[in-house]
Amino acid sequence: MTTLPASFNEPRTWRIYLTVCLAAMAWFVAYYFILPLANWLAYTALSLAQGSHLGDAVAFFLYDIPKILLLLSGMIFIISIIRTFFSPERTRALLGGKREGLGNLLAAMLGIVTPFCSCSAVPLFIGFVESGIPLGVTFSFLIAAPTINEIAIVMLFGLFGWKIAGLYIASGLVIAFLAGLIIGRFKLERYVEDFVWKMQSGGSLEVEKLTWPVRIGRAWGSVKEIVGKVWPYVVVAIAVGAAIHGYVPDSALVGIMGKHAWWSVPAAVLIGIPLYSNAAGMIPIVSALIEKGASLGTALAFMMAVVGLSLPEAIILRRVLKPQLLVIFFGTVAAAIVITGYLFNWIL
Prior knowledge:
By secondary structure, the protein is mainly α. The protein folds into 2 domains: 10-83 and 211-231, no CATH class; 100-201 and 248-348, no CATH class. The chain has helices at residues 11-45, 53-83, 88-95, 102-113, 121-130, 135-147, 150-160, 162-185, 194-198, 212-247, 250-257, 264-272, 279-291, 296-308, 311-317, 323-347. Residues 200-205 have low confidence and may be disordered.
């Protein structure tokens, strides 16, 4: 007879697993009833006319807030579980010794699931360089981590389906791969600040061994922390999206961000760079823009520029990169995003 691990016999452990199962069931039930509840509140409880500017805007607002927050919470929980199997130190170990090409591809893929934010750009960069990882491979990771946002993947899947979510992942990987490869081929190490080469990275390469209850506890902590920080931005973004959905004429957006406006993609990228938001805040706006007739490539290029080319990240990276390399880095990524936007508009 097979003996269960001791942890399975602990009442507290079973309560944790049961709570997760009940929470998952409640999540699916809540997600299923969001749309009819939002329509009832807008058109019946508030007596707003269906098809009116205000009615459609309010219905959009009441529907998108719980939907986005549910998707956000569920995805953060799942990704946080996955992230407990990774660490910056383990990522460095996986990338160490890899040649350009394979290293760039692996770095871009690891960037999706490895913890990353603007504040961690400098220590990650220093750790990668000190570990002997090529500069181009390092940049592939730094580009992929914020650009291919796991929250955006799930939210795009929920809003537009697997094809759009898949194209978003593929385009982000291509951008990170090619941009890192190009930067690596130019041998730009001389434009890294001198002190970086003298730094000694700390941290063990050993992976922390965690039990499943601990992983679940950390994931739940991440949900509370991240959702607690971003929900005001989500509400504001949804309010903007609702206003666009209800009041902005279709013809206006088609003229500005449609396929036939050749300048719309580079303009969207230039507008997006000074802005700063996370993917959760951008998705409702992108959804509203597309629903009103904006081309998919232009809208996604705008989102990727906001998420992947933020000014705060540029300011932080300036600590380790000389101005020449910083300009090359941002210029290369911006050009790749523009090309991707045109490609999406051409394909779809």
